[in-house]
Amino acid sequence: xxxxxxxxxxxxxxxxxxxxxxxxxxxxDSCQHDIPLTDDEAEALADILGASLMLGQLSxxxxxxxxxxxEQIAIPAGSAFVGRKLGDTKARTRTGxxxxxxxxxxxxxxxxxxxxxxxxxxxxxVVGTRQGLDGVTAIFADGEPDG
Length: 147
Known about the structure:
CATH topology of the largest domain: Alpha-Beta Plaits
Distance between the termini: 58 Å
Number of helices: 4
Radius of gyration: 25 Å
Helix content: 25-40%
Structural class: alpha+beta
Strand content: 25-35%
Shape: elongated
CATH class of the largest domain: Alpha Beta
């Protein structure tokens, strides 16, 4: 039901066919218009509706996250954390920034847990304030596991 009081829907048939349906405003059980959609049309409609919804959500997130930054930080080969666990960095406790992913050889490791072990060349994706991001960079560069 739209805000203007119109009832519409998408009917997906067992054979894969999809129809965009507009119901009669005076009889909600009666179809006023039935528009068959090709696979490409259905996908385009879903993309359009999904994209606009996502953009609205991102806009709201941007306003809520003012001052929050994301940065990718490479772990140098000489870092004391090569071969050590993420939990050993105590990055969140020490800086307030969070390591949300690790990029390794083209693979993305999302939300690594505290037992995740770093390798030379890993790139950590960090979210936090400018000060927090700088602190995480310093942790990996300074080679101080117990900071």
